[in-house]
Amino acid sequence: MKKLLIYSIMIVGAAWLTARAGDVKPLYEKECAKCHGADGKGETKMGKRLGVKDYTDSKVQAELKDDAACKAIKDGLKDKKTDKTLMKPFDTLKDDEIKALVEHMRSFKK
């Protein structure tokens, strides 16, 4: 009985995470796709100008840690040499929304 309860909790948790990642797609399309592209390749006019990474590349995905991705979304990114804003901060997003965006970004990996 105890195992059944644990498995049920795990299944519900996994379903919630999957649903949450799906719910974030409109947010990604509104706020992120302009630069990163709907497919995560970054082959947009703005993405090419800013030199965004191709998130379909497994090597790029392996190098990027979730905590760094969350920090970049929340705090934004600046060019270290010029101090020019590369990505505006999304400091109004909740932590679960930011984590869902990172999960969505991870789904681009091929």
What letter string, H or E per element, gives the SSE order?
Answer: HHHHHHEEH
Q: What's the structural domain tally?
A: 1
Total beta strand runs: 2
CATH architecture verdict: Orthogonal Bundle
Strand order of the largest sheet: 1-2
Please, how many helices? 7
CATH topology, which one? Cytochrome Bc1 Complex, Chain D, domain 2
Through-space gap between termini: 39 Å
Instruction: Provide the residue-averaged pLDDT.
Output: 85
Helix percentage: 55-70%
The share of residues in extended strands comes to under 5%
Seen as an oligomer or otherwise, the chain set is: single chain
Which stretches are low in confidence, meaning pLDDT under 50 for 5 or more residues running? 12-19
Shape: globular
Rg, Cα atoms, Å: 16 Å
Largest sheet: 2 strands, antiparallel
CATH class: Mainly Alpha
SSE-based structural type: mainly alpha
